[in-house]
Amino acid sequence: MSQKNNYFLGWIALDVDGTITLETYTIPDPVVQYLRSCVEKGWRIAIVTGRPMSLALLPLKTFDFPHLVLAQNGTIAMEMPGKIHLFNQYFPASSLRKIEDAYEGTEGDFVVYSGYENRDIIYWRSKRCTSEQAKYIEMAGQLYGEKPVAIDSFDEIAPSSLPLVKCFGTLTEMQRVDNNLQKNGLFHTTLIRDPHIENQYLLLVTDAQASKGLSLKRAIARYGDPKTVIAAGDDENDKSLLDAADIKIAMAHAPESLTSMAHFIAPPTREFGIVTALEMALKHGK
Length: 286
What we know:
An 8-stranded mixed beta sheet has the order 5-4-3-2-1-14-15-16, with helices on both faces. The protein has helices at residues 29-41, 53-57, 96-103, 131-144, 171-182, 212-220, 239-243, 256-259, 273-285; strands at 10-14, 43-48, 67-71, 76-80, 84-88, 91-92, 111-113, 121-125, 147-151, 161-162, 164-169, 187-193, 201-207, 228-233, 247-251, 264-266. Strand 1, helix 1 and strand 2 (43-48) form a beta-alpha-beta unit. The chain folds into 2 domains: 10-88 and 211-285, Rossmann fold; 91-207, Hypothetical Protein, Haloacid Dehalogenase-like Hydrolase, Chain: A, domain 2 (2-Layer Sandwich). By secondary structure, the chain is α/β, with parallel strands linked by helices. The chain is built from 9 helices and 16 strands.
């Protein structure tokens, strides 16, 4: 994928979980084959996911064509298959103090991600987390192959900059933390429903300039005129991604905030609905 090569039709930017796959470690063959055919026709592919980079790369091993990966909600970008690092958009570790201030009065604690360069470790303060949060962190580690490391203080964290903080709790709790964080202007936040636990919500906190949409724009600007951008997603953290696109696709199960802005609604993921929606979008774009 050579820089500043203008001979291409445009970009197809796709979320992973719930959009192109329902599995943790695989992408369905029909989806892989269709995306390969798009590349052969002159489209470029960007995979834009909330997953940490190490977890994002696992199901993409069958992608034998050039593509970008923007992981952890746009905090890191890499050109594949060469694993060429494009950029990071992290916040200073010292900013954790501001998140702690915003979290004051909320039961339990949040977790901190170290980033791809630091093995995508999850740091958590075991003495401050509730028993339910401890169970959740253990479950997530087993489900996603993440590496939770218990520490006493975030002062023990080695990296000087960090990609993501994840807060979790009830909707009311996460809205309160979110409102507090909005006051300092240092962070981009996304509130989503937890896909694994009923009535639990996640607040994803990144640098103010790190979102799926902002990072997609930054990445594709390196390759010349972006021409047409098609994007697809299924959750609140995909709103900025769809905002950055000319043609917007929302999955059938997406929240109303996405379906209301979409040009096309994709059939269910289990039916490889993204293929159907992309076929419609490509015809529309001609």
